[in-house]
What we know:
The chain is α+β, with helices and mostly antiparallel strands. 47% of the residues lie in helices and 18% in strands. It is built from eight helices and eleven strands. A five-stranded mixed β-sheet has the order 5-4-3-8-9, with helices on both faces. A hairpin with a 4-residue loop joins strand 10 and strand 11. The longest helix has 40 residues. The radius of gyration is 30 Å and the shape is elongated.
Amino acid sequence: MVWSNSQLSMQKKQLSGITALVSSFLITTLLLLSCVSPCLAKERVPEAVQSVSLEDEGPRYIDLDSQIVNSSGESLSVQTLFDEDKVVLLNFVYFSCPNLCHFLLDGTSEVLNKLDPKIKSDIKVVSLSFHFLDTSAQAAAFQKKYQERSPGVDWEFYTADKETIQRISDSVGFKYNYDPSTQDYAHAPLLLALSSNGQASRYLQDIRFDPFDLKLAIIEAKNKEYRSPMEQGLLFCYNYDPNSKGYVIEAKKLMKVIGAATLLFLLLWMVLLSRKARKK
Length: 280
């Protein structure tokens, strides 16, 4: 079949019209999606989850006067946790938590088992439930479980009333919110190193921890008079990087150490050479 020029022209016009309609439809669809997507994104991220970031700016001290309850049901002040002059590693959990708290506790247990005995003797691990309905019996069950998983570690579980939990969490900048859509608490995973005076020394935000990072966090939280020369040297060369959530070596400080060591070696070498020359 042979098309005439007029028929071809008409076909081209029809195709052009169809192409224009399809293009308009696609453009309109994309514009609608661009408008609707932010709304959908906001709906997918519960408001409770959006406001649980940690507030770790400035020096913070845990409320030492608050009363908490141990796994035996006995009430005691937070101050008593620091009586042995140890570094306190604190995490916030709740016992009916479906996922995150268990991952955090398992990660804590895992890294504690990788520490050498000397470091273990310098710490007390405290897990405080931030759900005011949790009981001492639940705390006792969790304490038994994780003490068995991490032998040789002083690890205790505590509960408290609603007002006390809020006061303690506010004092160290830990935030949590109840999410009605999931009927669970939204919160950040945290292992907090506290100095013997109750000061928040280092916030480790993860569910898995590097043993070297935890070791440096413990050394950093120790009283200076209890640090060995080796520990002082490690803190001199390493600095905590919040972006990488770990300790990184500082090149400038390392170069200073290497330079000083090189200079000392050269001086000793020159002294030895001069002594040999005198003997000859």
